[in-house]
Amino acid sequence: MDAVVVSIPTSATVALVACIIGSYLICGIPFGLILGRIMGHVDIRKSGSGNIGTTNALRVAGPKVAAATLLFDVLKGVICINISRFVIAAVGWGAPRGFEAGSGEDWVIALVALACLYGHIFSPYLKFHGGKGIATGVGILFGYFWPLALIHLAIFIVLVAITKYVSVGSIATAAVVPLTMYIAFPQMSPVALAIWALLGWTVVWAHRGNMKKLAAGNENKLSFSKRADTEGDAS
Fold this sequence. Notes:
By secondary structure, the chain is mostly helical. The chain has one domain. The protein has helices at 10-27, 31-39, 54-61, 63-93, 107-121, 134-144, 146-163, 166-175, 177-184, 190-206, 208-216.
């Protein structure tokens, strides 16, 4: 029996690489830092935990800056996933639906999703430092399959409401990404599932400092007041 050879169009390969690089650069934009300076006249890296995410923006610059940071960090994930899906398909990889789980090419968008997350956590504009990936991760899920994003958002909200710790909701919802992906898409290829697992567990890794503080009992609880002297966040 002759071996089956999978041929990937050269144009599609170029498009995939371009989308990976583009998504990394776009998702690396530190909106928390930018909006903190414009709206709050403060460098949020120099107060609180020093993180550029939503939680530290809330504590250092207030609710308006935090809300704007959350919105932009979510949107950059949504936009990059959806644009990449159509760009790659348009140049030779078939219809956008061809990237669905089990298609044999479901790893393509999973790889772009990983580039989005790594852009945010390892921002090329901040010497490869950045946020912890929750808002951008939710945006990625909304771009990929919005019902799954709602499930993860619900997990996050319920756990934060019960514990008052943003980090608990963040760590838990990130840790179960491979499980929810498998439940939602049992036909997903092992390669794609492994990439999604890496994505979720990278977010967990980014919260390693929070996990130490939780274990020590000195993690800060969620507060909607401006407190520049606080330490630790999970966004």
